[in-house]
Predict the 3D structure of the following.
Amino acid sequence: MCLDAQVNILLVMETHTPTRQEAFELFCRYNSNESLIKHALAVEAVMRHMARKHGEEEEKWGIIGLVHDLDWERFPDEHCRKSPELLREAGWPDEYVHAVASHGWGICSDVEPVSVLEKTLYAVDELTGLVVTSALVRPSKSIMDMEAGSVKKKWKDKRFAAGVNREVIEKGAALLGVDLTQLITDTILGMRTVAREIGLEGNP
Ligand SMILES: [Fe+2]
Ligand SMILES: [Fe+2]
């Protein structure tokens, strides 16, 4: 192997702290579906809100939220298993890789959420979907004036947002030791910061 090739391999293997721009470009390289991109932005915004609330590293939390479904569009049968491979190839640190893999714990991954960051991602991922559907059935179609009660009202109606696994959200809240209403409120507050980008600003 020539020296150039060796240097290239070393460069690929070496980990670095990813930037938000790098994360978004990587996500868009593997995903083009508009609702999936909106979902990524919603989860990023909630993770940023949660990080600010807990005095944690907002950039790291946001970036992990942004890329958590990296493998979803191209590798649906390998969801949560392909992303770690892609992130490692891109030189992302273990902490980021582990967190992304853990969001599908018990569903498509056996990687358990351990850190507060991971438990938060696990808890809010599905919840953002329920918040979106709850907002869209309101007359205002807006998240800006929506409270946790609108989401809780739909909690037991299994036909409403049928794809959203309420048990995972409840398990996530329990892992975090937070009350469900508080978790929903924080998720709404986070999503409000990107209401325009995710189409939940309401009627003009
Ligand atoms: Fe996922
Ligand atoms: Fe997701």
